[in-house]
Recover the amino acids of this structure.
């Protein structure tokens, strides 16, 4: 019997080695970030990691500031962690992203500081090409031509070719060893349903050798329904359920 | 100098051209304001890069917030009937595939060739591209919305961008707090001018030579 | 106010010109074919058409035979028409497909006869590359490299290039002027929900300049739900509702 | 000649290697039979090209038919818990992306290089590719399932295919009504042989030279 549900976050990320290439989903909301997987990876200690992610992440301090700012509207979760945590801990070797920096001069993200210290490498790429490169990895496409990028730094070192009189950049697939994604519900086959904008969470699920999904709950098989499933279980290797009561510190085993 | 336009007026000037049924993407910063000024009686489909189509206005208080419905910039918005959630790849299939009618993007510099630079934050080690390269390149129409000059008074409309480019030959129109300009065949054509401003005063704040057509008009929202 | 719902099938296809390039969805079931759109196009009379479709279609006679064969299990619809009808009527100039022929020597499809008469051109391509070429058109990708095809007739005349030691064929985007697709439900914005395997119906919606969706019903805006919508309305230009009582002849205006 | 294996036995021989949790695509024709012979206690996810994952068995009568749940070949199947519907492009993203563990495909010819020809129907002006090129090329394992010879007695396992190729160097194993053969380094290795058959008798029906290893076994389902 297939059962992709793993008991703990620590178990789910236990075999991620130092030097791994990792996709990390989530964007634009604290409620779609695979925070517990990120925290577990921080506890686990792997280093020299390369990440692909929309954004470099705010880190713990700035998240606390955002929590205060957002308080009139929404309770920013106490169990929110993003890649900023791993940048702060010095676990990143390289980041492939579209948003490496906080907006505004006064908001300096942990990744920016690591970049200034020369500890990490940045590969800057627009969100569309990043998304398509990851989708290409999932879909077995080695490379593709996009009209986005010619004449900009993104095209440097890449083939540029005309199609219909329009220059296109050749971008290559960006696979990963592991993908950390967050969904709403799952079943034991690894079928996923998302809530809200699906961001890179849906894009990355299936683009890595091992996709690990952090979910609110696992429901009995059949409950999600064939029309409602957003990501089929064939793309997902492990599922792990978020604690029902938030654990507010990233270094607490769970 | 005469008075510059308010952000709300700038947003109205941009939003005037949202046709009924238009699919519109608004960049972070000034452009987001345009969502509140869609002309009466027109229905516009908003697109947000992380996988949201057709949301409603910004949430005003806690009672209106659904924690799953955010737009870029951590801003909760209202659900609207017909709204759709998407993945990032599908969201950019929509952009790259030419399904966005208008994108409004902030700019640090726009030049006479329609090149857009909106990546680099001065004083920062790294700039953000976000979804701007795809939006600027592939939307049917790209409007740059920005203050006419930097805080230090430097022109942002220039002959040739000096900052890192987001996308080349992509901007169709520039709306600032002083003027409306169209990029046409490598030239900046002054279309509309803020009330009280002279062409010479606008030119003095502009780094590119402005072409002044006979039908130059004063900005009006009537 | 946006309202993409068109009153009749005849109106929905009225502007398709002779010589147009058309995507046509549906496959493997009579219940997912955009039959009324095909019938309306047959009535409209446009000719010299190029189609991209999974299959060349059985045509009216063989559909009647299938109806008899399937009778013990399922009532094959009396209002089923596929591209075989247009092949029979001599409206096709070219077909880009993975299934040009009936299986078995005794099952000869209208397209096969048209091919024997030299009236039509065939571009044979596997379903995966066909699907990806159409998706590329929708997604603004000019061309892509797939590992499928090298060493076979499919690769003839195409660029073959190595990625990671594996030969890949460059396939180009396949856009269309019109796409005829079938869905289950729609709203006035053109948002679509499918029922059952979505075949090329979902793939093609958005890959043409004008996508026309044939649906069972149009529901009030908001009823489909943001998580449930499979194809967003930005991909769809026209929606037309199937008659509640089947019209069993293709040449009846509707 | 000794008796050839039944289709059901062939299907059991193929299905033996479906591991628990395997994602399996079965081609039209003989391979579809394998769905009925998944070994007891193993859960297999079936994939069908037009956008179906995880369906149940074929419907037996009208009461079981859902007109929206068909597999390729117009055959209604039962829904199963966890089943998922997909688009054609997503369905082939799964195939091309290497997410299919085993595909079982019918063959007109398979050769010693593992090339597969299953397109051309003799006497027809055009052959069907279907999804076979993607499946044969990209599944982790490709099994050719076919009768050992044509109706006219011609060998289908050959040194070099003469018919149009569906995909090159893709077949890992061939299961026929006479033998189980593996393609290894450009050679056809005879792994198992039907009860009562001698190597010489199998070789006589085979167009490629068979390599006979020391551990050649009789086909057994135990």
């Amino acid at each position: 019997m297939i059962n992709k549900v793993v008991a703990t976050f620590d178990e789910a990320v236990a075999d991620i080695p130092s030097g791994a290439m990792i996709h990390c989903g989530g964007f634009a909301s604290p409620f779609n970030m695979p925070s517990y997987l990120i925290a577990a990876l921080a506890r686990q200690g792997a280093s020299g990691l390369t990440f692909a992610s929309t954004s470099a992440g705010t880190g713990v301090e700035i998240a606390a500031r955002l929590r205060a700012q957002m308080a009139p509207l929404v309770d920013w979760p106490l169990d929110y962690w993003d890649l900023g945590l791993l940048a702060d801990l010095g676990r990143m070797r390289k980041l492939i992203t579209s948003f490496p920096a906080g907006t505004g001069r006064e908001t300096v993200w942990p990744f920016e500081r690591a970049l200034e210290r020369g500890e990490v490498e940045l590969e800057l790429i627009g969100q569309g090409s990043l998304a398509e490169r990851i989708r290409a990895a999932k879909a077995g496409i080695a490379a593709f031509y996009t009209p986005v990028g010619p004449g900009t730094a993104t095209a440097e070192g890449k083939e540029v070719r005309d199609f219909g009189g329009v220059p296109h950049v050749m971008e290559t697939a960006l696979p990963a060893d592991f993908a950390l994604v967050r969904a709403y519900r799952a079943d034991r086959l690894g079928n996923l349903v998302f809530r809200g904008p699906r961001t890179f969470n849906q894009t990355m699920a299936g683009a890595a050798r091992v996709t690990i999904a952090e979910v609110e709950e696992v429901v009995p098989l059949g409950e999600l329904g064939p029309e409602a499933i957003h990501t089929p279980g064939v793309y997902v290797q492990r599922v792990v359920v978020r604690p029902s009561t938030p654990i507010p510190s990233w270094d607490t085993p769970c | 100098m005469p008075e510059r336009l308010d952000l709300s007026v700038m947003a109205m000037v941009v939003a005037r051209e949202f046709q009924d049924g238009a699919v519109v993407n608004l960049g972070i910063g000034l452009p987001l304001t345009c969502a509140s000024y869609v002309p009466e009686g027109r229905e516009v489909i908003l697109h947000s890069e992380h996988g949201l189509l057709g949301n409603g206005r910004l949430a005003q208080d806690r009672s209106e917030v659904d924690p799953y419905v955010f737009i870029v910039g951590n801003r909760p918005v209202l659900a609207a009937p017909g709204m759709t959630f998407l993945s990032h790849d599908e969201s950019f299939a929509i952009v790259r595939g030419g399904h966005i009618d208008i994108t409004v993007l902030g700019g640090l510099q726009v030049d006479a060739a329609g090149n857009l630079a909106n990546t680099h934050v001065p004083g920062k080690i790294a700039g953000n591209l976000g979804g701007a390269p795809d939006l600027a390149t592939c939307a049917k129409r790209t409007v740059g919305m920005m203050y006419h000059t930097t805080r230090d008074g430097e022109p942002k409309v220039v002959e040739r961008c000096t900052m890192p480019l987001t996308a080349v030959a992509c901007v169709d129109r520039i709306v600032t707090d002083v003027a409306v300009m169209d990029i046409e065949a490598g030239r900046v054509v002054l279309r509309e001018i803020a009330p009280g401003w002279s062409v010479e005063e606008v030119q003095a704040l502009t780094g590119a030579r402005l072409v002044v057509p006979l039908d130059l008009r004063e900005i009006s929202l009537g």
Notes: Chain D has four helices and 16 strands. Chains D and B do not touch (no CB pair under 8 Å). Residues 7-218 of chain D form a domain with the Glutaconate Coenzyme A-transferase fold (CATH 3.40.1080.10).
